[in-house]
Amino acid sequence: MMVVVQRIGELAQRVGRDVNLMEVCGTHTMAAFRSGLRQLLPSTVHLISGPGCPVCVTDTNYIDAAIALCRRPDVIVATFGDLMRVPGSESSLENERAAGAEVRVVYSPTDAVALARENPAKKIVFLGVGFETTAPTVAASIVLASKAGLQNFFVLAAHKTMPHAMEALLHDQQVKIDGFICPGHVTVITGAAMYRFICEKYRIPCVVGGFEPFDMLKATEMLLAQIADGRADVEVEYSRSVSDRGNVAAQKLMAEVFEECDAGWRGIGNIPRSGLTIRMKYAAFDAVPALGVRFEPARPHPGCRCGDVLRGVITPLECKLFGKACTPTDPFGPCMVSSEGTCAAYFKYGKRQAAV
Amino acid sequence: MCLAVPAKIVELQGTAATISVEGALREVDVSLIEEPRLGDFVLVHAGFAIHKWDQSEVDEWETIRRGLEVAGSGGGG
Amino acid sequence: MKHDRILLAHGGGGSLTHELIERVFAPAFGMETLEDSAVREFGGQKLAFTTDSYVVKPYFFPGGDIGKLAVCGTVNDLAVQGAQPLWLSLGMILEEGLPLADLEKIVASIKTTAAEVGVTVVTGDTKVVERGKCEGLYINTAGIGRVVADVGSARVLPGDAVVVSGLLGEHGVAVMSRREGIAFQTGVVSDCAPLWQVVKTVLDSGAEVHAMRDPTRGGLATTVCDVARASRVGIRLQETALPVSPAVQGACDLLGLDPLSIANEGKVVVFCRGADAERVVQAMRSVPIGRGAVVIGEVIEKPEGLALLRTAIGGERVIDMPTGEDLPRIC
């Protein structure tokens, strides 16, 4: 470990200027904070957190739509635990459950399919969030429900995809990125070749990193080496799990059930072709047409700077609400509520800086 | 954004497998990986196996978990 | 978002529970409500008094049942306050339809555990509610003990050692696997056990003990945060020293949980004078439930009121209180 840290120091000196390395995966954000990684990095190497937390980038109006659904007496909303505490415009799924709505936390979308089997008189709506790692599991569940002839299983889809979002960040004038630590498990599914266009078009190096502290340090070293050499290639640190092609079966399943669409990212706005919507073929499982779901236009809370935090423009410490009006027990925006959110990570693990 | 945990297949029937993470057992779907076998190590996310490791990859993980460098690591993609 | 209703997380023992106490109970009754037991002098004798309610579901779990828990939880709150448990009250709320055989088993469990500790159940009460109004049964126990040592969360000093009596996270994982919707199986068994014997051995060893806590709901994380605040000190734990079994770590990894925030029901954390750390460890290890005792950290002067973790890679992070509900995550 210390050898890598030393090499990072040497490379940083060779680079000779401040560099911003962005990780775009909430799990990376958490791994960095849990291990106290930043303290091992030289002061010129800034690890910034991008919009890689699917909960954080989910617009308020999605939560509002989910809440409207769970208030219907014939609906059970099934969700990953991550969404329970996210604030909508006025309430959260946790609050709705406390008020009597049927909201169930599940570990897998297949658990939601099982719920549909066990509750034929109810409509089960699964909240489909997550990136390319999760989308195939939701696709598989829809296929499962279809094969079982279930008529009471629906998905409210809000899946998002990485590459166009990363590209959008590079177009953003306020954000300066010198290298990407690419999301390890997304890339298990998509394959590392997906990032080549970023290197070729924008001359930004990309390293696909794993999640052990050592993985992230090694990925940092590899990025610095590229920057020092003036290279911009896709490299894989997480070689035990990531290949160039990715998981073809998962890709086929995603393509079978979903198609590309434009998507709204909280705090960033619309990013073309960065979302996944359920194909017509599976419309019977799409909560939007099947249950008449309406999305109100997204209304960001005034004062909430989640968007700037998500794009890496500011750190949570620079948001006026951080730690005061906005805390993990009383969150304003998703950055604070999601356990992977940058603000939550700063609050939990970075308090030290504020205290000293 | 993706918690995926390495787990060992301890039971297998078609596309339904029981995996063990140091003794914590859970049923997962293995339809997304090629030729799963009893004793294989897989990465599990949201109740699905998304990738299979061969023995050298398991060894690599063990090494990295201990914070040590893997010989000849840092390959291209 | 201001909460105008009680959430499940308010019962988790973490930050939301603390918030509830601060917002509703402390203004009415005072902040002592955060200590495990209240200590009062009566007739020249110091007595400790505590109460706890038990709503664990399912009521039979690997390693114990709600009856055993109802005795252990309360006598342990007395024990860590330095009090020898003497008497318990037993209040039961039973659901219409509860099998009598289950009730008898639970009562037998209470009797056995009480005898093991040397505490007597001296008074009780029974109520029955309609089917559906409670899950099988709820129990409340209150306990009185005789204080033999002056300890308290506000008495911890810089230089003190932090010692824990054994493996972390067992009860929480054991119970979680039996809850609906979580759907995983584990061989982990609850560590539910009475602590008086191990506490007495530590106190008799001659070590200078400043505080003791049992890290129940909210886990070790909540305990060290509470003590750091109460004593206005910093606490630094060593990640590599924390005793967590692979089975518990595996369950946590699978669900995305942190062993530090998971409940224990048979462990004590002792804050003692630094030089006495080894003495405390040996005393704990001389008792069966303390055989896994280790030093896990130290008390420092600054940063005041914060608990820190020195990580395995040599970094440092703040240990924060969990909010209150252990939810499995994908992210």
Q: Work out the number of β strands of chain C.
A: 14
- Unreliable residue runs of chain A: none
Q: Percent range for helical residues of chain C? A: 25-40%
Q: Which range does the strand content of chain A fall in?
A: 15-25%
Question: Which regions of chain C contain 5 or more consecutive residues with pLDDT less than 50?
Answer: none
Radius of gyration of chain A: 20 Å
Pair with the biggest interface: A-C, 53 and 37 residues
What share of residues are in beta strands of chain C?
25-35%
- The overall average pLDDT of chain A, rounded, is 90
Characterize the largest beta sheet of chain A: strand count, sense, and whether it forms a barrel.
Answer: 5 strands, parallel
Attribute tags:
heterotrimer; A: 356 residues; alpha/beta; five-stranded parallel beta sheet; four-stranded parallel beta sheet; 16 helices; 11 strands; 17% strand; globular; B: 77 residues; mainly beta; five-stranded antiparallel beta sheet; 1 helix; 14% helix; 44% strand; disordered C terminus
Characterize the structure shown.
The complex is a heterotrimer of chains A (356), B (77) and C (331). Chain A contains 16 helices and eleven strands. Chain A is of the alpha/beta class and 356 residues long. The radius of gyration of chain A is 20 Å and the shape is globular. Chain B contains one helix and six strands, in the order βββββαβ. Chain B has a five-stranded antiparallel sheet. Chain B is globular and about 35 Å long. Mean pLDDT of chain B is 87; it is low at 73-77. By secondary structure, chain C is of the alpha+beta class. The A-C interface holds A 1, 26-27, 33-40, 53-55, 80-82, 84-85, 87, 91-92, 94-95, 97-99, 104-107, 111, 130, 134, 213-214, 217, 328-332, 338-340, 347-352, 355-356 and C 1-3, 5-9, 15-16, 19, 181-184, 255-256, 303, 306, 308-309, 311-318, 320, 323, 325, 327-331. Strand 9 (234-236) of chain A pairs antiparallel with strand 6 (75-76) of chain B.
